Amino acid sequence: MPLLELDNISKTFPGVCALDGISFDVHSGEVHALLGENGAGKSTLVKVMTGVYARDSDKSNEGEKSTIKFCGQELSVLELASPANVQKLGISTVYQEVNLLPSLSVAQNIFLGREPKKFGLIDWKTVRKNSQILLQRFNLNIDVTRPLADFSVAVQQLIAIARSVDMSAKLLILDEPTASLDTKEVETLFRILSQLKSEGLGIVFITHFLDQVYEISDRITVLRNGRKVGCFKTSDLPRTTLIQHMLGKELQELAQREKPDPLKQGVEDLRDAHLRLKNVSVGSTLTNINLDVPHGQAVGFAGLLGSGRTEVCETIFAITPHQSGTMVYNGKVCKFKNPGQAIAASIALCPENRKSEGIIGELSVRENIILATQVREGWWRSIRKHKQQSLSKQAIQEFGIVTPDAEKPINQLSGGNQQKVVLARWLATQPKLLMLDEPTRGIDIGAHVEITKLIKKVCAEGMTVLVTSSEIEELVAFSDQIVVMREGKQVAELSGNDISEANILAEITNA
Amino acid sequence: MHNTSPETEIRAEKSEARLPIFPRRLLWPLVALSLLFLVNLLISPEFFHLEVKDGRLYGSLIDVLNRSVPVAFLTIGMSLIIATGGIDLSVGAVMAIAGAVCANLMVGGVDNLFIVVGGGLCAGLVAGAVNGGLVGYFKIQPIVATLVFMVAGRGIAQLINGGQIVTFQNANFAFIGVGSAFGLPFPVVLLVGVLLCVHLLMRKTALGLFIEAVGCNPKASYYLGINVAVIKFFVYCLAGVLAAMAGIVATADIQGADANNIGLWLELDAILAVVIGGASLLGGRFSLAASIVGVLIIQALSTTIILSGIEPKFNLLIKASVVILVLLLQSERFQTQIKTLFAMCDPRDRHNVGRELDGL
After folding, report:
1. For the ranges A81-95, B178-192, B226-240, which has the lowest average pLDDT?
2. What is the rounded average pLDDT for all residues in chain A?
3. Residues of A in contact with B218 (CB under 8 A)
4. What confidence score (pLDDT) does residue A442 get?
5. Residue A2 contacts by C-beta under 8 Å, 6 or more apart in sequence?
6. Does the beta carbon of A405 lie under 8 angstroms from any beta carbon of chain B?
7. Any idea which fold B22-310 has?
8. Which of the two ends of chain A, N or C, has the fewest CB atoms closer than 10 A to its terminal CB?
């Protein structure tokens, strides 16, 4: 008997059918991966399971009935009415963005809302002790009395998972839990998942990392455009078939690295550097960064989380202006004071954190696309409405943004489509230097290929591109030059034939 | 939000090219205002009586408009400040300062109307700049920063007035409060002019969009190159000047500057008007038109209560109840519940409705 069984679930939003008659089930003691491209309906399905969204009511004339069964019992609409109710039933969810309270201590977060009591008062000693024991299971030896915000996103994510598991969940839903974790942390997480699995927990696992899917999952369900493509045993499904199911077409070419053309390289040497950093330092986060980027080159920044990749981009873009050293851009020494000045010099940055630094949620897709261009034009010269519409329409077509129309608030789009809007926004300003900080984070494989192609295309047009990414494979695919960062220092530069996954990995791990 | 199929696309494009004349947000405040008028139609039809005397319109409707002017000025500024995610508690006190400055200039022998009015507006600008500086550049929480001026401002006005109510005789200045133009009271004409200017400034330039962007997501706005501090500084300055205008109108109306009572608690009316207009105090989208409708609701309500002959002791209670009703009307959850209730009366749908109610 399945632990959770969904049958014939549909969900429509105005203008978009997000789920169309989906069936899905999870057994106890299995990891069931839910895969699909951006906007395929993964998140919507999870939100239906967890009571965030109510599924569409039955169409009585067609005689189809949608049901959600948990432990063999059919759940009524009332039981699914709120996330709190569903959690009480034993279904816990950990989202990609950590949903805890950053200013409370780790222990307070873990026991929030279910604090052990002693004489009617909260027994803080037990709270601290139990939190410590719980986290030790997760190989986390941290001071549980410190505020949550003191720890990295990865640690916060593990804490969130620990909290969910501790609330004696029967079913654990993990929505992109590994997006912000590094390799070691993923290992820890998987070890714990296996342990939970053997204890009889059902786990629904959503991710974009196919390696991880094959490592941990027992079954795979693939969604595409709100429909179920199929449910497969992981061991029976070859990787290429899986990708084909996800994309719905034969995958012609996964981006291949072109061999550097010696002739082209010779020409590049003659050209002036477009961007040159000399001994650039910012406090203790960046020390002595030296960089030489010719026009039209793609530079990849590799390194672990917190190695200083993001900080390099933010320094160039003057979000944290450099304190010492010089930056030469277009042959001139520049010291921008704020991002506005960097934008005026035709620099663009797609930030790492899409939700808090990228999109402006309440505003429409159109407004989000034209904003950067508008900032360059200045507040006085408003872009005319019909020009705004043609710009956004063009972007929606060019980038394949899935939205019913350009006036939809951007926070109603899926993550990948939001990222495309942010990319479209910056390309509309026709930048000379484009920086992409983790452009493919939380994005499916189809969009990966698209973005890789896009980077190659804009480089060919003469744009200089700086990309940071945790995915080395991707960096290798398009970079002309790779800078490996560790602890705020640049530890190696690779170019030409030296660029390979093995070399980069060796440099990252070399102490 | 429309869903365009290929056939209707061309038509939709044309209609989209125009500014939305009737934003959805305006709907519920307008419904509330109409209901209020309907009540008047039933209990006191003379509410709608208009007559022309000496080339100027008179009647309760005109009174409502005229009395709304000071709060309306404050509300324009407050809408923009709330759109950036801030709040300004000091505008009532700024009214008092501006009134005191004007009155004392006139008592001190300045006859030039431009200098008198200019002096008052400058006082408002300075106050707004202090608020904007504290909020924009020093990142002090708006409610704290402006609370300081709310308390201190009235003290400053009293100091300027020397602890007295300063009265003056100046026909030109008094015209701002009691004169008439185009058959309407002059304050109403002034308000319409200023409202139009601010609207054009917001919607014909990109300023309105930047303000909304800053309110929705200040961090992303900064990453976009918007100078968040300057935008915030600007809206507080503008609100200061508008508050000074309100103070000048109120002072000219009674031909005296009363530092203790001018604009007292009006900042709360202004905030309420913005909220009735459907804005979120967390910042984001704003609609000047909806906020002004909010002002009219508050003022029409006061007039209605007086006209209806209900004992004055019930006034505040009734006002509060109506405000709660208006806010409920705008709540999405309340709307769906009402809809299901109405649908229940329809026998064909009864089956489905029962299920929906389960979900609520």
Report:
1. A81-95
2. 82
3. none
4. 64
5. A25, A26, A27, A69
6. yes
7. ABC transporter involved in vitamin B12 uptake, BtuC (1.10.3470)
8. C
Q: What residues of chain A lie within 8 A of the CB of B206, using their CB?
A: 374, 377-383
Ranges of beta strands (E only) in A417-488 are 433-437, 464-468, 481-486
Of A349, A362, A379, the CB nearest to B284: A362
A238: contact with B, CB 8 A cutoff? no
Beta-carbon separation of A360 and B17 below 8 A? no
Asked if B200 has any chain A CB less than 8 Å from its own CB, the reply is no
Closest residue of chain A to B224, computed from CA coordinates: A372
Q: For B293-311, b where at least 16 C-beta lie within 10 A, e where not — what string? A: bbbbbbbbbbbbbeeeeee
Q: Which two tokens stand for residue A222?
A: 């693939």
Q: What is the DSSP string of A3-49?
A: SEEEEEEEEEETTEEEEEEEEEEE-TT-EEEEEE-TTSSHHHHHHHH
Q: Which residues of B touch A68 (CB under 8 A)?
A: none
| Mutation choice for A interface testing from B137, B203, B224, B352 by most A CBs within 10 A | B224
With cut-offs at 50, 70 and 90, classify the pLDDT of residue A272: low
For the record, the structure tokens of B146 come out as 């402006």
Q: Is the distance from CB of A23 to CB of A228 less than 8 angstroms?
A: yes
Report yes or no: B349 at the A interface, CB cutoff 8 Å: no
Lowest mean pLDDT segment, chosen from A26-35, A171-180, B5-14: B5-14
Q: Give the model confidence (pLDDT) of A213-270 as tens digits.
A: 888 899 999 988 788 888 999 888 887 788 778 766 544 444 444 444 444 444 444 4
For residue A304, give the amino acid letter: L
- Specify the range with the lowest mean pLDDT, choosing from A137-151, B17-31, B74-88: B17-31
Chain A touched by B2 (CB under 8 Å): yes
Which of B181, B227, B197, B16 lies closest to A344, judged by CA?
B227
Question: Residue A488 and residue A309: Cα distance in Å, rounded?
Answer: 8
**What's the confidence (pLDDT) of residue B356?**
43
Q: Is B227 on the interface with A (CB under 8 A)?
A: yes
The verdict on a CB contact (< 8 Å) between B223 and A319 is: yes
Contact predicate B245/B187, CB 8 Å: no
Domain ranges of chain B: 22-310, 320-360
